[in-house]
Design a protein that fits this description.
Elements: E1 2-5, E2 26-31, E3 40-44, E4 52-54, H1 71-74, E5 76-82, E6 91-92, H2 94-100, E7 108-112, H3 123-126, E8 130-131, H4 133-141, E9 146-149, H5 168-175, E10 179-182, E11 194-201, E12 209-218
Parallel strand pairs: 5-7, 6-8, 7-9, 9-10
Antiparallel strand pairs: 1-12, 2-3, 4-10, 4-12, 5-11, 11-12
Helix pairs in contact: 2-4, 4-5
């Protein structure tokens, strides 16, 4: 059995989307050995810091929140699809997605772009490939429960705040109750295209999202 950690390390200076609603990670030591004789820390982080899930509430007013998402939805068999050969800013069409999946929609889709290799660059947020709205709707219509990726989002990076279309893929997926896991790392270390995916978010009351420890188990 092989276990691969797909989660970012939470540390000061880590890349975070630069807007006031995404705070930078902070870690402050409070308890000290030799003084309080124990070590404790205060941490500051956002609900979308590092590897995290988006709950429906993130974009859907009145949508479900993190603590109420069933663990059975988050954890289980997942299909890994390698999109790492796609060019920057490529839009994955419904036909391309269906071809990659042989027209068989998985309960959980893990999309590999190897985009974590772009961490700590400006391109990380601006140049990643993304899914078309039709591709996301096909996932919804065919029963997908979760999509996980090593990019910051499933949406066109040009469709950001202030654009005519603000995160339409988030709204399609989250509006149908499909959970999104973002900022994965090291998907390329997996040897199988079918894995047992474990997604363990912090249990935050009324959480619109939460940092997660995410890992893959391969037999």
């Amino acid at each position: 059995m092989k276990i691969t950690d797909l989660s970012m390390v939470l540390e000061e200076g880590m890349q975070t989307f630069a807007t006031h609603w995404h705070p930078f990670f902070e870690s402050t030591q409070l308890g000290r050995h030799g003084i309080e004789n124990r070590e404790t820390r205060k941490i500051v982080l956002g609900t979308h810091t590092g590897t995290h899930i988006d709950a429906p509430r993130h974009f859907i007013s009145g949508g479900e929140t993190v603590e109420n998402i069933p663990l059975s939805q988050l954890n289980g068999q997942a299909k890994v699809v390698d999109f790492s050969s796609l060019p920057d800013k490529h839009e994955i069409t419904e036909d391309e997605l269906r071809t990659c999946l042989n027209d068989k929609c998985p309960d959980r889709l893990v999309a590999r772009f190897d985009w974590d290799l772009k961490l700590n660059t400006n391109e990380y947020y601006t140049d990643h490939a993304f899914f078309s709205e039709d591709a996301c709707q096909w996932l919804v219509d065919n029963g997908c429960k979760l999509i996980a990726l090593d990019t910051p989002q499933p949406d066109n990076p040009l469709n950001g705040r202030g654009a005519e279309k603000d995160a339409p893929n988030h709204k399609i997926l989250l509006g149908a109750g499909v959970v999104i896991v973002e900022y994965l790392v090291d998907i390329r270390s997996l040897q199988c295209d079918t894995i047992m995916l474990i997604v363990a978010p912090l249990k935050i009351k009324d959480g619109d999202g939460a940092p997660v420890r995410c890992f893959a188990i391969e037999e």
